[in-house]
Amino acid sequence: TPLYSSAASDVYKRQMHGFKCTNKHKEIVMPMPIHPIFNEHSLQSIAKAEGLVVICADAAGSFGPSAKRVNRLMKGALRKFADSEVFEKMDEGEIQRFPAPLGLLANAVLLLKMKKRPSVEMAQKCGANIAKEAGKSNIHLFVTANARAAHLAFGIAMRRYNFNEYKTKNQTAFGSLNIYVTNVSKTEIEYNDLGAVVDGVFFTRDLVNEPANILTTSEFSNRLKDLEKLGLKVSVLEEADMEALGMFSLLGVGMGSESPSKIVIMEWSGGGNESPFALVGKGVVFDTGGISLKPAGGMEDMTMDMGGAGVVAGVMKTLALRKAKANIVGLVGLVENMPDAKAQRPGDVVKSMKGETIEVINTDAEGRLVLADVLWYAQKIFKPSGIINLATLTGAIIVALGHENAGAFSNNDKLVNDFIKSAGHESEGVWRMPLNKNYDKLIISRIADIKNVGGRTAGSITAAQFIQRFIDEDMPWVHLDIAGVASVKNETDFAPKGATGWGVRSLNRLISDIYEI
């Protein structure tokens, strides 16, 4: 039985898609995605469907059997609109609402303009548009045999997300999602891997949206340990372990916090005997800037500074749910950057696991200090075939690329081009940025091997140059600066404002296309 089939039990779904966690404030039940129920197509179901009935017409205004049935029930109103100039001027993916339709129990009929055989990208976008128009109502979507029903369902499921766990009012849940198709079993199989991606994206969004008093380093670690239920091997390095390994670059960042620093390692062994591919994420659960304190305005957004770790966690969940045939290891460095009498100071010198010394010019440039030790550990322990790290690393990347694209820095053309291709397929924006040894002179320290900032100019590039110092010369590596895309102030095609889950889809696609056996 497919994981997302109508026959899957409610108990199983809760186990797979929802995690409980407890803390001193309250018990939290993480919200679950609303996955579709696929039903055999039935014209008789249309008149009795409650909520919203969604049907399609192509660019020429041609109706399939479902739209024809709705048109008859509505006494020709649908046909009259499809023949109008208004419909002709609608773009593909646009929707017209018909409230209180005569002859149906539904509250409204939504007419979607879409080709009979849309592209995958368009089908997913149409699904997201349906979700935005539907709000929290029950959805009954009637599609033709070639309409990419699984991808329509994916778009709807991706967009039907909110994070209101801490609101005491107006917590109305999303209604059901019913999709009527000509071949239920085939569509369920097509949706199976897509549903796993939805779950991974939602896991990432939930983590990134969580307030820092809830998602401490220990709570984050506990939620990742819960992924063992899905077949991942999850282990944790505590501060004593890191001290024994000489990880003083990472440990220095968390010295001012009561939350213990941790590294969580998630292993998925679904391939053969090949070396694993490694994903590494920055997990600063809250970033005050430390002694180099940030301005007060906007500091509340620094709950999202663990976005890189959140993406790695979401990808690992997705891989486990869909039983990916690849060996992947995900490592996240979890710290909190706080000012305190014990906190690291500007001017301090720390020694990394690699053995290089680092002069800390600015304690707010902490993410690269975390990544330095985690990346070095990943290479020495797992000897991966390649590495991609993700971090909400610099404000400079937002100045350069805004909120439309992440910045990609790489020492390997094939790996970065493979990733950019995967991101393009998944409609996740990314733009390659330069690396050049000439920038290294900006991070030369007077008293140590290297310093952690190089001034205001080329800020995202010097950060990447710093991280590259902790990558073996022959190791294929991509650094993704996701500061502008991990959490946004405006809604996107597939998410409301807030955490986006950017990167889960692209990395899953990369692994599926390149690394699975």
Helix content: 25-40%
Question: So how many helices?
Answer: 17
Low-confidence stretches: 9-20, 22-26
Number of strands: 21
Calculate the terminal CA-CA distance, rounded to whole Å: 23 Å
Major beta-sheet overview: 8 strands, mixed
Mean pLDDT: 94
In terms of structural class, how would the helical and strand content be classed?
A: alpha/beta
What is the overall shape?
Answer: elongated
**Proportion of beta-strand residues:** 15-25%
Task: Lay out the secondary structure.
Elements lengths: L9 H8 L2 E3 L4 E3 L7 E4 L3 H5 L3 E6 L7 H9 L3 H6 L2 H5 L5 E5 L8 E6 L6 H15 L4 E4 L6 H11 L17 E5 L2 H26 L7 H9 L7 E5 L1 H7 L2 H6 L8 E8 L7 E11 L19 H15 L5 E11 L11 E3 L5 E3 L7 H16 L4 E5 L4 H6 L4 E5 L2 H13 L4 E3 L17 E2 L7 H10 L8 E5 L5 E2 L9 E2 L4 H12 L2
Parallel strand pairs: 3-8, 4-6, 4-7, 7-8, 11-12, 11-15, 14-18, 15-19, 16-17
Antiparallel strand pairs: 1-2, 5-6, 9-10, 10-12, 13-14, 16-19, 20-21
Helix pairs in contact: 6-7, 7-8, 8-12, 12-17, 13-16, 15-17
